[in-house]
Design brief:
Shape: globular
Radius of gyration: 17 Å
Strand content: 5-15%
Number of strands: 6
Structural class: alpha+beta
Number of domains: 1
């Protein structure tokens, strides 16, 4: 298994694709090893795999975890639901990239750089499809 990290903008187009890593590599380690110049005022929606990852010039958005032995407040639950709706859209983008079966199925291409190239082409095709039929901007 291999994995990549992608950064999406509000229009759900891929802006950045990291190098392909082994599936056993932790997400935080991949994020630390991938140099990406974050624009000032960026907002990063992240999950628990990036718990200690922070932005220098931006805001990090994460769901609120339930405290042990207590419940979340109504405002915290509402905020988590809003984030969950945004994450569903991101997962839909992931599945639309995997529409290209070469990304979804087992890739036996072992030559150096080929897996990166395959993922780049599939993300580019997804961006092309988005430009032809754009989605609603994610709020």
């Amino acid at each position: 298994m291999v994995k990549n990290m992608r950064l999406l903008n509000a229009a759900l187009t891929s802006l950045f694709l990291s190098a392909t890593s082994a599936g056993s590599t932790h997400d935080k380690r991949m994020a630390d090893a991938t140099p990406y110049p974050w624009p000032a005022g960026s907002r990063l929606l992240q999950d628990l795999g990036f718990m200690a990852f922070t932005l220098n010039r931006g805001e990090t958005i994460m769901p609120t975890r339930k405290p042990r032995g207590r419940a979340l407040t109504r405002t915290q639950k509402a905020a988590n639901r809003r984030l969950a709706r945004r994450r569903v859209r991101i997962e839909q983008v992931n599945s639309s990239v995997k529409r290209c079966r070469i990304v979804h199925d087992i890739c036996r291409l072992r030559k150096a750089g080929v897996r990166d190239l395959v993922m780049e082409v599939c993300c580019g095709l997804r961006n092309f499809r988005t430009r032809l039929t754009p989605w609603q901007v994610m709020v």
